[in-house]
Give the backbone structure.
Amino acid sequence: MAGSNNITRAAFWMIGAIVSFSSMAVAGRELGGQLDTFEIMMYRSVIGFVIVSALISVTGHWQTVNGARLRNHLGRNLAHFIGQNLWFFAVTAIPLAQLFALEFTSPLWVIILAPFFLGEPLTRIKVLAVALGFIGILIVARPSPETLTIGTIAAGTSAIFFAATTIITKRLTRTDSVACILFWLTLTQAIMGLVTAGFDGDIAPLDAQTTPLILVIAIAGLTAHFSITNALAIAPASVVIPIDFARLPAIAVIGMLYYNEPLDIYVLIGALIIFGGNYLNISSESRKIRVADK
């Protein structure tokens, strides 16, 4: 009964993550013609910094915030900043379902990078998972002079930078608190956003139309990762990740209803193959954990 209740609670948290990610994508598209990606990241990070600082103050966790591994934080946040800018660019350039499908390749890039940066072995199952993911990418993107666009390249590349973010985050969680990681994330990205947005000497101010959308992006970005973290804390990844993939059909329906984007069968087939690669790796790792615990 307890296991069933945990899965139900995890599903609840993942519904929150799906709503958050979808809201961020829609708000990002609506802002695309009014703010550039650097301005979006600057405003989002400033608001995020205020929220995170307030939460740290309320919970009394300032003593866990330190700069002992500032270089690692800077590397992580630079990778995330680049990946998120590419993602916000892609959200205005390609169908939302295609963007989400390519974003789901990020865990497969983690498999490729982990042996070099975390010392994790590259097993046959992981190689097979990556191979399936690569096949899925080819089906989703269908690279050719007609179909391979700057938008699909940006979306695919953002997944690589998100994977690098995950790798460095995993290293940081061994020594630093979540409060410390989020503090440096929002602070450094606010500075990066200010520098890049102001490079041309022209930063678009927020107005009555853009402010609510920026607030949605800032809050949804925090709630999405908070929801996934809570779901993973109470249920196995092999349960949580399949639920996360439900945001692909959800965003496909949103794209169809609000932006007249056709339901592309190739995107859905490719996404299922990418999901298969991810799930194969997760199931293999879960079995290893269960055997080790016996």
Q: What stands out?
A: Residues 2-293 form one domain. Residues 2-31 form the longest helix (30 residues).
